[in-house]
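During the second year of the project, the team shifted from modelling isolated chains to modelling whole assemblies. The rationale, set out in the original proposal, was that interfaces cannot be judged from single-chain predictions alone. As a representative example for this report, we include one of the complexes processed in the last quarter. Its constituent sequences, exactly as entered into the pipeline, are reproduced here:
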Amino acid sequence: MDRGKLVYRHSAATRVTHWLFFIAFLALISSGLQIFNAAPFLDASDKTDPHHRVFAVQAPRQDVGTVTVFGRAFTTSGWLGWTDDGMGAKGARAFPGWITIPAYQDLASGRRWHLFFAWLMIVCGAAYLVWGFTRGDLRELVLTRADLPKIWPMQLYYLRLRDAPPPHGKYNPLQKLAYTTVLFVFAPLIVLSGLALSPGFDAWAPWLTQMFGGRQFARLWHFVLMLALIGFFVAHVLLVMTTGVFNHLRSMLTGWYRLGSHES
Amino acid sequence: MNRKIFIATGVTAALSACSPLGTKLNDNATFKKVLESAEGVNRRLIGTRGRVREYSQADISPDFPVNSLDTPSDAIYTMLTRHAFAPYRLVIDGAVEHPQRFSLAQLQHLMTITQVTRHDCVEGWSAIAQWQGVRLADVLATALPKPQARYVVFHTFDRDADGMPYYESLSLEQAAHPQTLLALRQNGKPITPDRGAPVRLTVPTQLGYKSAKWVQRVEVVADLSRLYGGKGGYWEDQGYEWYAGI
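Output from the structure prediction step:
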């Protein structure tokens, strides 16, 4: 077996923030769904308005759960709407207990978790960006104009319609596109849409809430951005798993990565 | 390939351990303290700045949810409703130079503010209503808080099923905010008994649980620890943040 050279790939700062991001991400989703459960609907409006309802999870009757998306209802009994109440039984509940923190319905605790880990995420994100820009690590991760023509060939390579990837550095153009979108579009937007929900922040910067189309609309944005970040997370884990999972795990734990035969 | 199945199982196990682990940690007193540290950050950074947006009549919610404990059913409140709140007196006391008692007629006479604001519930919903009432700051000024005053506590006619009184509190700064009102009218009509008659608080810069209904007495205090659960409010005593600006 051709064993490539070991290189020091991830700085300690990157590794520490990576795993803190991971913990905060899981805590934010689980506690966020707990919070969502207290008002399991999303409206594309400022005030709550059933005429602008985009998404709702309901239990129309005993043992039945439904999800309504743009007015179209789907039966989701057992999974959403009527599901695990976190206390060993089933009941009327939007997201099941096995996915929320705490498992049982407890809005006050969910909020405590969410607001704590939101700050952890923001502080980590800021530290990561400052560190990345001052050390230059981020330059390898941020999409540049030179990467743009390489995006499509890279996509073809992933689709196995091209034998070799276009020449690139530590990260390929699609990886750069994904990381750049997450770091500079999704992450800032999910923080801002979260802040737009705060009546105190709204008093200070009402333009922010209006930018998202109002408070309930900001809830919708916050939720959709969560879905987008989950999409990134799933793709990230799948790609890590299919491109040498132990090598990747070692590099994110110790910093050392073994290069493949076509990498230098 | 076995490796991949192994890893996939590991990832699934890690994700499904998240909720039980979090639920367990949630009961840990030290961890709870850590989580609660965020409240101080929010209070300091977000605080009470600026003014919330005021809306037009057209924006008013057709159905403002009634989302609270039941309408008070005790003898005094029932008697007051029977007499159209004529015997009602709003008491302002505690750490003040001049304790006050206002009848509903006196409050109506002082009523100068009309504002259409959005009420944001901690659960996540929002409703817009027009409120007419008295600035809390103006009422407090007549009583003249003493130098040691730090908080304003709102005692209400409301009791939960166990007889626990509903109360709330604001800092002096939040109480002095120009949009913090003691409201007498909602959407042009006197507030109805299920919505907090005769006088309720409306604090649009904070989440809805701060806007206490059925206000009976406004007590100015130096600290909150000696009242009920000591956290400054009915919901606060049950784990919700005292700083409800987020």
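Chain A touches chain B through 53 residues (CB under 8 Å). The longest strand of chain A covers residues 53-61.
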